[in-house]
């Protein structure tokens, strides 16, 4: 996916090696870091991402979250 590097985002985690400590583990996790919450929002709400987000929505049960490191 070229959208993430275009906004200088970085994949921190992309795998399915997730041991459950409690509750049900997800099948796969992806964590992407950005320089700011605003840049993350720009990427997620970009017209470029809008054209492909159906691929994620139609192929997996997923959640997208924004988190800020304080």
What would the average pLDDT be, to the nearest integer? 89
Percent in strands: 15-25%
State the secondary-structure class: alpha+beta
Q: Element order, helices and strands?
A: HEEHHH
**Total domain count:** 1
Low-confidence stretches: none
If you compute it from the alpha carbons, what radius of gyration comes out, rounded to the nearest whole angstrom?
Answer: 13 Å
Give the N-terminus to C-terminus distance in angstroms.
28 Å
Query: How many strands?
Result: 2
> Looking across the biggest beta sheet, what order are the strands in?
1-2
**How many DSSP helices?**
4
Q: Outline, from the CA principal axes? A: globular
Q: Summarize the amount of helix as a percent range.
A: 25-40%
Largest sheet: 2 strands, antiparallel
Q: What do these coordinates show?
A:
With 70 residues, the protein is an alpha+beta fold. 0% of the residues are buried. The protein is globular and about 35 Å long. The chain has helices at 3-6, 37-44, 47-50, 53-59; strands at 10-15, 29-33. The protein has one domain (3-18, 27-59).
Outline of this structure?
The protein has 70 residues and is α+β, with helices and mostly antiparallel strands. Helices cover 33% and strands 16% of the residues.
SSE diagram, text form:
Layout: H1 3-6, E1 10-15, E2 29-33, H2 37-44, H3 47-50, H4 53-59
Antiparallel strand pairs: 1-2
């Amino acid at each position: 996916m070229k959208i993430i590097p275009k906004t200088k985002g970085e994949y921190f985690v992309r795998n399915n090696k997730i041991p459950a400590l409690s509750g049900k583990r997800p099948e796969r996790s992806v964590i992407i870091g950005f320089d700011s919450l605003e840049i993350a929002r720009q990427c997620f709400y970009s017209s470029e991402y809008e054209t492909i987000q159906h691929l994620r929505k139609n192929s997996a049960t997923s959640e997208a979250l924004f988190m800020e490191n304080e």
